[in-house]
Fold this sequence. Notes:
Number of domains: 1
Oligomer: single chain
Strand content: 15-25%
Amino acid sequence: MIESQSTRRLLVVDDEPAFCRFVLGVAENLGYTVEIAHNGRDFMTTYTLFQPTTVVMDIVMPEIEGVELTQWLIAQGFAGRLILATGFAPNYVTIAQHLADAASQFKTQTLLKPVGIDELEAALKSA
């Protein structure tokens, strides 16, 4: 089982390892305990064990994409903060954001890739 020593737990799900490492470095400097998943299935397993307070999620991924994972988070009763990241058309991310807003369970924020350090820090600090 995954152990967490911080009350600030971040789960990153993105199929780009470089982006995951970037988020990991920034988040750990802010006091987060971080876990990484590179696909939707690993995200679901890690989420269940880790119980994150914040999620950074890529929207466009193979197999299970961010809109479907957002629906899954709603079904799980997630009540933390969801930061949606996309390098594709920003309109696509609004689908996931509208789903989350309609459920009113958790707050969402959108970051457009490439994400700068200051932008990511601000998003994580507000989480």
